[in-house]
Amino acid sequence: MAYGLKQISPIDLKPSTAIGVKLPFSAGNVFTSVYTTKEQTKYNLINFLLSDPRETPLVLFGAGLRSSLFEQITSDSLDELEMSITSKIESNFPNVVISRLSVSGDPSTLAITINFSYTLRNTNENDSIIIKIENA
């Protein structure tokens, strides 16, 4: 009888070795360490979604969501944004398989909410992210 074994990322085999930092940065100790690939992938995705391309010189990292806040929020623009996010995540994060992605908008407050569920390809671990971006 076959059964699925849980795969562990080689980075996770040393539980006392930090592999990244947690977002958002805290006031007490600025950098809180992250010790698993699952957690670090989540924070990398959040950082990617909240960054704009060319925010840093010569670096094209980021989904560029802020520019969509100044467009009219319609079902067509939300569909385009959803397709754009999907293609950018697939090209920048090959270890992430998108399970569910929904983008909703509120025209009265110019807010966009991204609800994103994903699975890590090599470990089959699931996680989700909800991000709300407002034009403040």
List keywords for this structure.
single chain; 136 residues; Nuclear Transport Factor 2, Chain: A; three-stranded antiparallel β-sheet; two-stranded antiparallel sheet; 2 helices; 5 strands
Quick gist of this model?
With 136 residues, the chain is α+β, with helices and mostly antiparallel strands. The chain has 2 helices and 5 strands; from the N terminus they run E-E-H-H-E-E-E.
Element-by-element helix/strand order = EEHHEEE
At the first level of CATH, the class is: Alpha Beta
Q: How many strands, which pairing sense, and closed or not: the largest β-sheet? A: 3 strands, antiparallel
The largest beta-sheet arranges its strands as 3-4-5
CATH architecture: Roll
Based on DSSP secondary structure assignment, what is the total number of beta strands? 5
How many separate helices? 2
Name the overall outline: globular
Q: How far apart, in Å, are the first and last alpha carbons? A: 57 Å
What level of helicity do the residues show? Answer: 10-25%
Mean pLDDT: 82
Radius of gyration: 17 Å
> Which class do the helix and strand fractions yield?
alpha+beta
Oligomerization: single chain
CATH topology: Nuclear Transport Factor 2, Chain: A
What percent strand? 25-35%
Structurally, the number of domains stands at 1
Which stretches are poorly predicted, pLDDT < 50 over at least 5 residues? Answer: none
